[in-house]
Amino acid sequence: MPLDLQDLGRRAKAASVLLARVTTDQKNRALLAIADSLDARAESILAANRLDLENGRAAGLSAALLDRMSLEGGRLAAIAEDVRKVAALSDPVGAQFDARTLPNGLQASRRRTPIGVIGVIYEARPNVTVDVVALTLKSGNAVILRGGKEILGSNLAIVSAIRDGLNGLKQGGFEAVLLSDAIQVIDDPDRRYIDEMLRLHQYIDMIIPRGGAALHKLCRENSTIPVITGGIGVCHAYVDDTAKLDDALNIVFNGKTQRPSVCNTLDTLLVHDAVAAAFLPRVAERLGAANVLFKAEPKALALLSQTGARVEPAGPDDFDIEWMALILGVKVVSGLDEALDHIHRHSTGHSEVILTETPTHADRFVNEVDSSAVFVNASTRFNDGGQLGLGAEIAVSTQKLHARGPMALEELTTYKWVVIGSGHVRP
Amino acid sequence: MPLDLQDLGRRAKAASVLLARVTTDQKNRALLAIADSLDARAESILAANRLDLENGRAAGLSAALLDRMSLEGGRLAAIAEDVRKVAALSDPVGAQFDARTLPNGLQASRRRTPIGVIGVIYEARPNVTVDVVALTLKSGNAVILRGGKEILGSNLAIVSAIRDGLNGLKQGGFEAVLLSDAIQVIDDPDRRYIDEMLRLHQYIDMIIPRGGAALHKLCRENSTIPVITGGIGVCHAYVDDTAKLDDALNIVFNGKTQRPSVCNTLDTLLVHDAVAAAFLPRVAERLGAANVLFKAEPKALALLSQTGARVEPAGPDDFDIEWMALILGVKVVSGLDEALDHIHRHSTGHSEVILTETPTHADRFVNEVDSSAVFVNASTRFNDGGQLGLGAEIAVSTQKLHARGPMALEELTTYKWVVIGSGHVRP
Fold this sequence. Notes:
Radius of gyration of chain A: 24 Å
Oligomer: homodimer
Strand order of the largest sheet of chain A: 10-9-11-8-7-12-13
Number of helices of chain A: 15
Number of domains of chain A: 2
Strand content of chain A: 15-25%
CATH class of the largest domain in chain A: Alpha Beta
CATH topology of the largest domain in chain A: Aldehyde Dehydrogenase, Chain A, domain 1
CATH architecture of the largest domain in chain A: 3-Layer(aba) Sandwich
CATH superfamily of the largest domain in chain A: Aldehyde Dehydrogenase, Chain A, domain 1
Number of strands of chain A: 16
Distance between the termini of chain A: 59 Å
Largest interface: A-B, 68 and 68 residues
C-alpha cells in the first residue's frame, strides 16, 4: 500500500502544536523514558540490527559501511546514555531576548519557540535516528525521519521502542499517545517518497539532509521547504612563516588522520615558502607513517619526495575534492595573500585554520575567510557541537541562513515577537 | 543582447568579498554620498520617473499602482533622508556573541558577518530600490535588484545616481569603483531572468521576494537559493469577554483602516459571544463610516445588520483571503478555544492580536498562536521594523528559518565561529 505522506505530515504538524506546549520537565521525562525503553528493548533492536547487517553483507556492502550500521559492542547502550545527556541540557524554548520598551510604552521582545516539523534525510546510521529524535523532542519539534534503506529494520525497532517509552508516560500526566505522533518514519525505501517529502511545505518547516554532495544537491534543487545544506568540507590549514612548527605538525596530523571520513577533516595543507623546507619533510614523515598519500604541487612535491612518503603530483581538480580518506593536498604559497586566495577559490565554507604567531595575520585570516568556523592554532576537528560546548549536534551547516556551523538545540528553534500594549494604535 | 547573469553574479560575489572588509565609517560615508547624489541628481531621476508614469497611464495602470510608482511631491527627498537615517543606525557586522572558554582552554565565539549576495525581487516601487541598497550596503552585503518592469526607467536613474555617489568616494580612500559592483540591476524585464536568478546559487546567498502570493510561490518552487517567504498576512483580532471595548474598537479600526493595502492589516475579527451584542454594532458604526464592507458569519451578520453598515454573508473561503482592501471578516466565537482553533486553521502566521484583561488568556494566546508577531492589546500595524525599534525594514518574514517578523540590519547578517587555540588538537 503506498504511503500517505500527506496524512503523515498532517499528524506530525498536529503533534508539533501539542509538543510546543509541553513543559521542559515533561520533555525531559519523555527523554528518560525513551532511554530506558531503548535499554529494555535492546534485544529486539539488536536482533533487527543483526538482520540488517546480514542483509548488508549479502548485498556486498563495504566493511566501513557495515561498521557504521552496527549497534553491537555496547553502542546501543551508549546511544541510550546520550539521550539522557540531552535530557540534562538546558531547554532553549521560551527564552526571551531583545526585550525593549518602545518610546510609546509598548513592551516588545522576541521569544524562542520550536520550529514545528523537521524532516531529516540521512544515511545508514541507526545512531542518527536516536540523536535526531532526542534533539528534536527536546527542542519541541516534531520530526519526519527518512533513514538509509539498509537500516530500515533497525530504525523501525528503535522507533517502536521510542514509542513504547512515550506511551508508558500516559499515566504521567500528558498526552503521550499524541506525542508519539511527533515522531514519524517513512518506512518505504522507495526514493519517490524523498521527492514527495521535499514538497510537503504545508507540513514540514525545515529539511536537514545528512549525506554526501548528491543528497544536498537533490534537496537544494527539488525542495520547496527551506533546506539546511552543509556537511561538505574541503578544509584548509595554512602554516604561516611564524608558525610554531611542532604545534602545526600536531594540528595537521590531528586534522587529517584522527577520523578521515568526516567533514571537519583536513583536505589541503598550504605552507609558507619560508618554512616549507623545514616543515614539509616532517609532515611527510609523521603523516606518511600514518599511511597518508600526498597530492602535491611541484614545489611541495620536491620537498615531500625527499622522504619515503607516498607522493603524487596534484591533478587539476585535486584541490576541490573532499577526500574523506587518508589523502592530503599540499601546496607551497608565497604568504598569507596567496593562501587566502587559494582558500577563496577552493573552500566549501566549512572549516579552515591558520597556524601563526603573527597576530595581524591571525586577524586577517579570521576576518577574510568566510567559513562556518575559522580556527587559529587549533585543529579543524573542533568544528563540532559537542566540542564547541553546545552539548550535541544534529548537523553542521555551511550555508549562511538560519544557522552556521554546528546545529544543536538552539539552532532547532525560531522565535516570535511578543508585543504587549494597553490599547496602543499606530499613529 | 541577452543579459549575462553569471557575469553579473560573479561580479556581485567579488564585490561582496571586498564589502565585508569595509569599515563602518566607510559604509556610512558611502550612504551619505548616496543620499547627496540622490538629491543632486533629483531632476534626472524625476524625469525618468515621469516617463514611467506616462507609460503606466498609457498602459492603463490603476491609480493606486501609479501612486506607488511616483516619486513626486517631495518623496524622493524623503527617500534620500531615509538613507541618512540608515547611516545613523548601528552596524551589526563584527559583533561577537556566545563567547566561551572551553574546559580545554579554547576561546570560541560567534562573530556576526554579512551574508554575501542578496537577491531582491520586488514590485513597481522605486523607493524599495533605495531602501534595499541602503540596508544591504550598511550590513555589508552585495545586492542584485530585479524591480517591477513599470519602474525600470526610474530604477536605472536611481542606481546611476547611487553609483555616481559611490564613484565620487574614490578619492576618499576605499575602492568605490569595485564597491559599485556591489549593486547590480537586472535591467531586462524578461521574466526568464527571474527564473535564472533563482538558480544562481553559486553567487546568490539569499532571495527576498517582495510581492504577492504568486511571487512567493514562484520563488519557493523554483529557487535553489534559500528564500525568505513572507509578506502575506491573513491577520486576526480576537476580542475576549473581558476586553476594554473602547480600546478594542480603536485597535480594530486602526488595524483595518489605517493602511488597508499592507500585510499587517486586519482581515478577520473574532468576538466573544458575551460581548458581541455590545461590541459589533459599535464596530459596524465606526468602521462602516470608513466604508468597510463586512463579510460575516450568521450570528455576526445579524448583529452587524442592525446598523446601516454594508454587510454580506461570509463565503466558504472568505476567512482565508488577505483582503488588501476595506473588507473585514467577522465571526462570533464561544471563547478563547474557538478563537485559537479558528486562528490555527486560517492564519498565515503574520500578525494576530488578543484584546483581553484576563492575564491567563493573554498568556495562552501568546504561547499558542504561532505567528511572527503576537500582540496583546495593541494594533497589528506595529509589526514593522521601524515601529518595533529596528530602525528600518527590508521585508517581513513569516517563515520559521533565519528570521521571523520584520527583517532589518541584523537579519541581513549571518555569523561565523571563531576559535582561538594554542596548539589544541582533538583528543
